[in-house]
Design a protein that fits this description.
By secondary structure, the protein is α/β, with parallel strands linked by helices. It has three domains: 9-99 and 228-290 and 310-322 and 329-362, D-Maltodextrin-Binding Protein, domain 2, CATH 3.40.190.10; 101-223, D-Maltodextrin-Binding Protein, domain 2; 380-427, no CATH class. It is built from 19 helices and 13 strands. It has a six-stranded mixed β-sheet, with helices on both faces. A five-stranded mixed β-sheet has the order 7-6-8-5-9, sandwiched between helices. Strands 11-12 form a two-stranded antiparallel ribbon. Helix 7 (156-166) links the parallel strand 6 (147-150) and strand 7 (177-180). It is globular. The protein starts with 15 loop residues before the first strand and ends in a 5-residue tail after the last helix. Mean pLDDT is 95; it is low at 1-6.
């Protein structure tokens, strides 16, 4: 579509829109756009549909029951490739937030890890190493494998859990069992003994700690600073049929993200999100991570994590093409994707920086002029406090992924099931 924009509501192909979300703290952009009137200001009458699972979101958007939805950042590319789902041509022109997840283990498992090394209280790397010792003990005793919950097979939560486990030599596919459980059921599943740990978005980690069921051993921020978490996605055909409506939604969501990233608005956001129509949990539970606090251990002071939820700063909403490249690398690493593909072509089919730039320009926002950036090369001391363009982006293991270097990065990963020669053959002109 043209970069020119007409604000008249008459341009909207559709004014009544139904959007899906999962009860998580980072559904906030959709909720705030609704509650603060940003959708209405764009001439949109939006119905927000509270869904119970990511597979449900995927299917309803794919079938046209929902016009669009909050999705895990890795879902549109996984669906485009038909990994763990039917092939669905989703596109995303906007990231809704960065960070927001954590890994929690139950009390019994945490106590065993702590007995091996008390530093598990502070260090995700030490926690993974202690867990590796627990797993070896269980193997020798011929005990059943530990079971961990994730929210979707190709989710950021799955990749983060696997990445954390593999950092200490734990094979996620052979040393533990990984099962899919919808986010709102995670705490119940842990309480019932179905799982010993999980990787999920807030506020479900906080709730598990508040209910004295477990301990947080790693946050998404610690695993990969300021990595993308949720996106707004629609089908490619919907975007083509409703270009002005799509842009109106993007503008409203951008305004909501700007509002959300102001510290003075976080308490109000928690009150709104905690309502029955959205997350349906106590305000103090929802407010914890929104206020930049990670409650890792019951009875102890929460850890200060100012960037636990990033909704706009650090160019958070820009759909960087190197992010879906990382998701694809993880699908190859863990054998979820086996056919060699043109990575560049695939990510450009899914993430739409040009569409984002149109929406950003329409409301006077500056945005990046490049589509990719190096990951892993910025730490907190290198980032100026006033910088709104990029934030820290370090990985737990300190690796750096240069632009065009995703296959080199994948080649260095342990447990990788990727056919590197085949990938190089089809991507040879793409890799710098």
């Amino acid at each position: 579509m043209s970069g020119k924009h007409n604000n008249k509501f008459a341009d909207l192909e559709k004014t009544e829109v139904k959007l899906g979300f999962i009860p998580l703290t980072d559904c906030a952009p959709l909720v705030i756009a609704q509650e603060k009137g940003y959708f209405a200001a764009e001439g949109l009458s939006v119905t927000l549909s509270r869904e119970s699972s990511w597979a449900g979101i995927r299917d309803k958007v794919g079938l046209g029951i929902l016009d669009g939805a909050q999705m895990i950042a890795s879902m549109p590319v996984a669906s485009r490739l038909g990994v763990s789902s039917p092939k669905l041509d989703f596109v995303s022109a906007m990231v809704l937030d960065l960070n927001g997840n954590a890994i929690t283990v139950n009390n019994h498992l945490y106590d065993r890890m702590y007995a091996i090394d008390p530093r598990v209280e502070f260090s995700p790397l030490v926690a993974a190493q202690a867990l590796q010792c627990v797993i070896e003990e269980d193997k020798r005793a011929r005990k059943p494998k530990l079971r961990f919950g994730i929210v979707y097979p190709c989710s950021t939560q799955s990749f983060e859990l696997r990445y954390w486990l593999a950092s200490s030599g734990i094979d996620p596919d052979n040393d533990v069992d990984i099962v899919v459980i919808p986010p709102p059921r995670m705490v119940t599943a842990m309480n019932d003994g179905e799982i010993q740990g999980f990787s999920v978005g807030e506020p479900w980690n906080t709730l598990a700690v508040q209910q004295q069921l477990g301990h947080v051993v790693a946050t998404k921020y610690q695993l990969w600073n300021n990595s993308p978490e949720k996106v707004f996605a629609v089908t490619e055909s919907w975007a083509e049929d409703h270009p002005f409506t799509h842009q109106a939604i993007l503008r409203a969501l951008l305004k909501a993200c700007i509002w959300l990233d102001k510290k003075e608005n976080r308490k109000a956001a928690a009150r709104i999100l905690s309502q029955a129509a959205y997350i349906a949990l106590p305000t103090d539970t929802v407010a914890m991570s929104l206020n930049g606090l990670s409650l890792k251990h019951f009875g102890k002071e929460p850890e200060k994590v100012p960037d636990f939820h990033v909704f706009h700063r650090y160019s958070a909403n820009f759909p960087w093409l190197n992010h879906p490249e990382w998701f694809i690398s993880q699908m190859y690493r863990w054998g979820q994707l086996t056919v060699p593909i043109d990575i560049e072509k695939t990510v450009r089919l899914v993430f739409k920086p040009a569409e984002y730039r149109i929406a950003a320009a329409a409301i006077g926002l500056d945005c990046p002029t490049i589509d990719r950036k190096t990951e892993g090369n910025l730490h907190e001391k290198m980032v100026l406090p006033k910088s709104q363009h990029l934030g820290p982006n370090q990985f737990l293991d300190g690796q750096v992924i240069t632009v065009g270097g995703i296959i080199r990065y994948l080649e260095q990963q342990n447990f990788s099931q990727a056919d590197i020669p085949a990938l190089r053959l089809i991507n040879t002109k793409k890799e710098a």
